[in-house]
Amino acid sequence: MAMTANVNDINVEQIDTRTRTRALIGSAIGSTVEWYDYFLYGTMASIVFGHLFFPSADKTTETLLSLASFALAFLVRPIGGIVFSHIGDRIGRKKTLVVTLSLMGASTAGMGLLPDHAAIGVWAGVLLTLLRLIQGLALGGEWGGGLLLAVEYAPRKKRGLYGAVPQVGALIGLALGNFTVAVMNALLTETQFLSWGWRIPFVLSIFLVLFGLWIRKAVDETPSFKKVKAEGHTANVPLLETLRNHGGAVAVTIGAKFIETSSFFLFATFTISYAVSLGYTRAEALNAVLAAALVAVPMMLAWGALSDRIGRKLVFGIGTVAIMIYIIPFLWIVNQKDPMLLMVACIVGFGVIWASYGSVLGTMFAESYPADVRYTGVSLGYQIGAAIVGGPAPLIATALLAAYHSYIPVGLFVVVCGAISLFAISRAEDRTGADLD
Questions:
Q1: Could you report the per-residue pLDDT of 290-328, keeping only the tens digit for each?
Q2: How much is the pTM?
Q3: Rg (CA), the chain
Q4: What distance in Å separates the CA atoms of residue 263 and residue 188, rounded to the nearest whole number?
Q5: Regarding the domain delimited by 14-224+234-426, which CATH topology (the fold level of the hierarchy) does it fall under?
Q6: What is the DSSP letter of 372?
Q7: Residue 5 pLDDT greater than 50, yes or no
């Protein structure tokens, strides 16, 4: 009888505003720290790491090797998702998120202290790649847990808005990473930046991690997981149960991820290296992406709230079709070599269009799985989709550009990803407004 009473008391609609706010801050802070660390690597892979860790007589080879190390982490993200989501579905979301945040912070700080190729030769690239793989493992488990911290605390009619918050944290992390690099670039000479200045943003992540851990310590376990534990319904092997009973949802999650991750990394990573290769200064390229990320923050919240009214699938579909139409004109605008046009183009593509499907993706995924395997389901589908397209996206775009000497194939690559995602969500059930559990 006592267990029944406890289960009945676990009602997400009755949670007070202060508790919800604390959970949202915990979700956003963790996401901000994780993605600051993660995108810092992406930025440096575009402008620094090739020369310092993968030196070659050919600049394109340097860039490709550097971006390849960036892409490798996506191959281990599904492994991280499986390992940490198993813990999250068995032991709890909160404890898992503390581990993933600590791993990400330690690996990022290690990069800032790592000797370069001139000091230890080929081992520099090997050790850098190893730390990058640890980042991938950590992020593989972090995203799903951070998402569920927001969605499982959300009231039924505001899940789209709440689910957009961890995605907003990712943008703040991206903006913070780019801002830190831009400040270093402005204060230091080119020689100073390449010699030691690039290390400072990596080492500073230690303070962000400590702050994130302090915030998350005050957040309680989610209502959905409490209910699963109280009822004794935790899955023995969440991965096997997910594949056996929810394989279709995993396939939809993987397919839907294609357009979000391919376009994201095209805007956030490839655009920087591509713009610099066209003659833009590093500051102009970084500022354009930074401005777009800042605009995307309120836009994602607005799109998430709109999805609570008109449905996740409709918002996702509108954004996907829009980016398929816009991507080639965007690349044409970048080729005009006008810094102001570059910034406007990034704001429209990244800050407005990407924000639409990026805001609803996580909520739509979370609504596709029951609570006992939700962490595993969202992490598995999300990370496999990211591994197939996300990490390789800047590498694929750079290779297409080098092979065809035209941006058209790059745009067509994104269009194909969009078509796959549209087909995937056509197979999904829209559970907007329905009870989560």
A1: 899 899 999 999 999 999 999 999 999 999 999 999 999
A2: 0.82
A3: 21
A4: 32
A5: Growth Hormone; Chain: A; (1.20.1250)
A6: G
A7: no
Per-domain boundaries in the chain: 14-224+234-426
Give residues with Cβ within 8 angstroms of 151, minimum separation 6. 159, 162, 163, 362, 363, 366, 367, 436
Amino acid at 46: S
The length of the chain in residues reads 437
Asked if 92 and 225 touch (Cβ cutoff 8 Å), the reply is yes
Q: What is the pLDDT of residues 367-398, one digit of tens each?
A: 999 888 999 999 888 888 888 887 677 778 88
Q: What is the largest CA-CA distance in the chain?
A: 74
Q: Which amino acid is at 299?
A: M
| Cα separation values, 327 from 89, 151, 330, 345, 386, Å | 38, 31, 5, 10, 19
CA 367 to chain centre: 19
Q: Which residues contact 315 (CB under 8 A, 6 or more apart)?
A: 303, 306, 307, 356, 357, 359, 360
Question: DSSP letters of 295-361?
Answer: HHHHHHHHHHHHHHHH-HHHHHHHHHHHHHHHHHHHHHHHTT--HHHHHHHHIIIIIIIIHHHHHHH
d(CA 190, CA 222): 48
Measured CA to CA, the distance from residue 422 to residue 425 in angstroms comes to 5
| Nearest CA among 104, 130, 94 for reference residue 36 | 104
CA 435/CA 357 separation, integer angstroms: 22
Cα 68 to chain centroid, rounded: 18
Show the DSSP H helices in 91-192 as ranges: 93-112, 117-120, 123-151, 159-187, 190-192
pLDDT in tens, 214-244: 887 778 888 888 888 888 778 788 889 899 9
